[in-house]
Amino acid sequence: MPYILITTQIRLETGPTMVGDEYSDPAIMTYLGAKKTTMLGNNFSEYYVDEPPRLVLDKLEKLGYRVVTMTGVGQTLVWCLHKETSELCQHPVMS
């Protein structure tokens, strides 16, 4: 899983932080200490941690993830992270 999105509400920059969706890697979610939650009215689940985004970004950096971009969408802050994988680098591009 080379990409991860994390988000938080501007007024909640100290947490909680949304760190994944229902298809996220369970090992990464366990490492982050994330809890899977389904909000009332939603038909999908998300993973949350009580920590602020800065601490989540620090943990993901230790796993090899790097911030690709960050933006604000309304009252939400969004970070997109990417991890280079050796598997992707070892396979030649098919022509």
CATH class: Alpha Beta
- Termini, distance in Å? 24 Å
Say what oligomer this is. Answer: single chain
**The CATH homologous superfamily:** GTP cyclohydrolase I feedback regulatory protein GFRP
Query: What would the principal axes of the Cα set say about the shape?
Result: globular
Tell me, rounded to a whole number, the average pLDDT.
85
How many E strands?
6
Subcellular location: Cytoplasm, Cytosol; Nucleus membrane
Organism: Ictalurus punctatus
GO molecular function: GTP cyclohydrolase binding
Pfam families: GFRP
List keywords for this structure.
three-stranded antiparallel beta sheet; alpha+beta; membrane; 3 helices; 95 residues; Gtp Cyclohydrolase I Feedback Regulatory Protein, Chain: K; GTP_CycHdrlase_I_reg; GTP cyclohydrolase binding
